Automatic annotation (TrEMBL):
SUPFAM superfamilies: NTF2-like (SSF54427)
Name of the protein described by the UniProt record: Nuclear transport factor 2 family protein
Residue span, SnoaL-like domain: 82-188
Pfam family for this entry, one: SnoaL_2
Alphabetically ordered keywords of this record: Signal
UniProt cross-references to Gene3D superfamilies, sorted A to Z: 3.10.450.50
Secretion signal span: 1-34
InterPro entries membership: NTF2-like_dom_sf, SnoaL-like
Length: 221
């Protein structure tokens, strides 16, 4: 019985981890080639042909509006870079009713708004101080920007979960991710982030205990 209790507790710990990560890993940092695009105050003015040539775009023939939307998204990645962490700058890129949806954890979807967005940037900088996002493919279609990327960093900070604190191990994190940004009038209305949680768990050395989950759900006799 004691062994079963320990396994159930382990499963609860993993579940808590997934909830915390679904809130935290939706924000990362832009790749090095895109970072300079977010440094200037007039980033929303759009991107030049030279800027576009440095990005992994599926189509470089963008309209003026599409260039503005892409610039806003790149700015969002930049302000959440590990050595920047401008939480208010990230918040300011969202519309008043803008929302960030972390998709892929145990809960399925967790939504953040207003000041929660800024708190997320700070938390991420604590968990992965060198957090970085490697953009692999960018597709812009009107007011929608879709990006295939990897969230990268080193597990150097404490990872707070409802079940307790997981101490840093120095593990290298490299998680496959897909981001979808929906904008209007130069502001982010919805940001959906789909994260490869199974890969993350493996890199952290924590994999789901399916046997315990099945046992815990079994009807009592």
């Amino acid at each position: 019985m004691e062994d079963m209790d320990m396994k159930v507790h382990r499963w609860k710990t993993i579940t808590a981890l997934a909830v915390a990560v679904s809130l935290a890993l939706t924000i990362g940092a832009a790749p090095s080639q895109a970072a300079p695009l977010g440094e200037g105050p007039n980033v929303s003015a759009g991107l030049s042909a030279s800027d576009l040539s440095k990005l992994p775009l599926t189509d470089r023939h963008l309209t003026k509006r599409e260039k503005v939307n892409l610039a806003v998204v790149l700015r969002a990645y930049h302000v959440a870079e590990g050595d920047v962490l401008d939480s208010q700058g990230f918040i300011d890129l969202f519309a008043k009713d803008g929302v960030l949806n972390g998709i892929g954890g145990v809960e399925g979807q967790t939504s953040l708004r207003d000041q929660q967005l800024g708190g997320l940037v700070v938390w991420m900088g604590t968990f992965l101080p060198d957090v970085h996002r490697q953009l692999k493919q960018i597709t812009v279609r009107g007011d929608v920007v879709g990006i295939e990327l990897s969230i990268q960093g080193t597990f150097l900070g404490p990872f707070d979960t409802p079940a307790g604190v997981i101490k840093p191990t120095g593990a290298k994190i490299d998680i496959p991710t897909a981001d979808f940004w929906y904008l209007r009038n130069g502001k982010v209305e919805v940001f959906d982030c789909h994260i490869g949680f199974t890969t993350l768990y493996a890199q952290l050395g924590i994999l789901p205990d399916y046997a315990s989950a099945v046992a815990a759900a079994a009807p009592k006799r």
